[in-house]
């Protein structure tokens, strides 16, 4: 009888000690999240001032191509890029973890996909491409946060458009099964190298550094999409072949 009791005491002690040992790690992670959110928030104001001043300077009567005009354009472009990065960092810090129950509502995915593919954010990156939307005849409803789901789908669509050459095609599909819903974004783009696939959802990961910088990407869009999908108890996956294109798939549970 003494042996089981001793083992029980040891197990309980180990459980308590492990919890105590983990607490500093939890505190450090929470502090890191707060720092990221605070730093991102504080950076937005000066960036907005820089951008607005550069844009005012561009409105002034300065001949295009002159050194001053070129410098102002570069300042405005850099400020926009940094502002986008700060916004993404702030989003990641604020949206870590599960969904706020107050933000969950019934979402008509048919309507959501129609709105998303027609949005300026998507259309501005797809002017040289053909976009196809494939929806089921029946209305597809799910419980979730419509704004976050729209953001995830937008990120996947703009990513597909950025890495698809002119005259290419991007598909957005909604497929309903009895146990889950699939949202697919497929493109005829440049594809992703096999060695890069395991890292594609990592923050700041870029498999094509030169092209990513050229397109003005922060390297956070896919990480944000994955975080949103996982917050909805879903899964985001990708299959790709270099020179053929990529297929990103969101799988969301029903019920």
Notes on the protein architecture:
The chain is α+β, with helices and mostly antiparallel strands. It folds into two domains: 2-94, Helix Hairpins; 101-253, 2-Layer Sandwich (Heat Shock Protein 90), CATH 3.30.565.10. 52% of the residues lie in helices and 18% in strands. It has seven helices and seven strands; from the N terminus they run ααβααββαββααββ. The protein has helices at 2-59, 67-94, 109-117, 120-123, 146-162, 209-214, 221-231, and strands spanning 105-108, 130-134, 141-144, 169-176, 180-187, 235-241, 245-253. A five-stranded mixed β-sheet has the order 2-4-5-7-6. The protein has a two-stranded antiparallel sheet with strand order 1-3. Helix 3 (109-117) packs across helix 5 (146-162) and helix 5 runs antiparallel to helix 7. The model has no long low-confidence stretch (mean pLDDT 80).
Mean pLDDT equals 80
The sequence of SSEs as H and E is HHEHHEEHEEHHEE
Distance between the termini: 48 Å
State the CATH superfamily name of the largest domain: Histidine kinase-like ATPase, C-terminal domain
Radius of gyration, CA atoms, in whole angstroms: 23 Å
- So how many helices? 7
Unreliable runs: none
Oligomeric state as shown? single chain
Which key features would you list for this structure?
255 residues; Heat Shock Protein 90; single chain; five-stranded mixed β-sheet; Helix Hairpins; 2 domains; alpha+beta
């Amino acid at each position: 009888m003494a042996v089981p009791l001793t083992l029980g005491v040891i197990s309980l002690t180990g459980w308590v000690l492990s919890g105590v040992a983990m607490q500093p790690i939890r505190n450090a992670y929470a502090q890191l999240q707060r720092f990221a959110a605070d730093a991102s928030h504080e950076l937005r104001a000066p960036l907005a001032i820089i951008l607005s001043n550069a844009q005012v300077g561009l409105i002034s009567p300065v001949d295009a191509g002159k050194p001053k005009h070129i410098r102002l354009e570069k300042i405005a472009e850099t400020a926009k890029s940094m502002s986008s990065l700060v916004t993404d960092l702030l989003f990641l810090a604020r949206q870590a973890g599960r969904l706020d129950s107050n933000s969950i509502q019934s979402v008509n995915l048919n309507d959501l996909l129609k709105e998303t593919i027609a949005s300026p954010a998507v259309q501005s990156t797809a002017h040289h491409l053909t976009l196809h939307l494939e929806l089921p005849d029946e209305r597809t409803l799910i419980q979730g946060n419509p704004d976050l789901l729209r953001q995830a789908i937008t990120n996947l669509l703009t990513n597909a458009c950025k890495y698809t050459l002119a005259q290419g095609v991007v598909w957005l599909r909604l497929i309903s099964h009895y146990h889950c819903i699939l949202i697919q974004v497929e493109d005829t783009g440049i594809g992703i190298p096999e060695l890069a696939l395991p890292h594609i959802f990592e923050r700041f990961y870029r498999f094509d550094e030169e092209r990513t910088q050229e397109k003005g990407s922060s390297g956070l869009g896919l990480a944000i999409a994955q975080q949103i999908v996982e917050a909805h108890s879903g899964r985001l996956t990708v299959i790709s072949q270099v020179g053929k294109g990529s297929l990103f798939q969101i799988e969301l549970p029903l019920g």
